[in-house]
């Protein structure tokens, strides 16, 4: 009988040890506050500096809210949907987002979230027979979105679309080059809560207008930009408004800048 009892106890102890090992062997993976992507990375990696990911979509799931994704080197890092506060910054390298038939970045974050996109190169492939990308950046929901030092070109709808419905979304575009899209920037939030502040940026050859604001309550503040080669520098529709300090440069093809109301 003692032999049987010892065997039972030994078996129970072994099972307990295996159970404990099973519990501790697969802890939840913590998200990092800073992650990295590389043109030669792999999304199976933890996105650390020594083991970077390959795409923004791969890195964002491993980046904590409020964290930052950086580029170690140049590459095409793919489309991504952002659902939380985050910064993607790749100044100094060629960080491409090349898409056909879809949006480059969709921002669908919380109403108190802030998203920063810095140093990115968006290509929408607006050349037949390719189906062009829809928008370089489409803002559906966020408190603030900052687009800084970016190149956005070749999109069939717009370089940047602010389409936040009834969510108040403030988008800032600065020091960027928005070229060869159907519309450069459009603010079309159905609930009249969209706004764009556009400063120090270059617009050229956008085939309909460089900036369109449509719908009562939607607005744009425009200062220190250059507009060339588009039928209209600014198009205001259905009660959309725009203001400016007047410090903009207009090419001969651009529309009359007198449609802008000076600030102050």
Task: Walk me through this protein's architecture.
- With 264 residues, the chain is mainly β.
- 11% of the residues lie in helices and 43% in strands.
- The chain has two domains: 28-73, no CATH class; 78-262, Single-stranded right-handed beta-helix, Pectin lyase-like (Pectate Lyase C-like, 3 Solenoid), CATH 2.160.20.
- It contains two helices and 25 strands.
- The strands form three sheets. It has a ten-stranded parallel β-sheet. An eight-stranded parallel β-sheet has the order 3-6-9-12-15-18-21-24, with no helix packed on it. The chain has a seven-stranded parallel β-sheet with strand order 4-7-10-13-16-19-22.
- Strand 1, helix 2 and strand 2 form a beta-alpha-beta unit.
- The radius of gyration is 24 Å and the shape is globular.
- The N and C termini lie far apart (96 Å).
- Residues 1-28 and 254-259 have low confidence and may be disordered.
CATH architecture grouping of the largest domain = 3 Solenoid
Q: In CATH, what is the class of the largest domain? A: Mainly Beta
The share of residues in extended strands comes to 35-45%
Tally of distinct domains = 2
Could you say which overall geometry the principal axes of the C-alpha atoms support?
Answer: globular
Mean pLDDT: 87
- Uncertain residue segments: 1-28, 254-259
> What is the terminal-to-terminal distance?
96 Å
How many DSSP-defined strands?
Answer: 25
| Class derived from helix and strand content | mainly beta
Mind telling me the CATH superfamily name of the largest domain? Single-stranded right-handed beta-helix, Pectin lyase-like
Put simply, the count of helices is 2
Question: The biggest beta sheet, please?
Answer: 10 strands, parallel
Radius of gyration: 24 Å
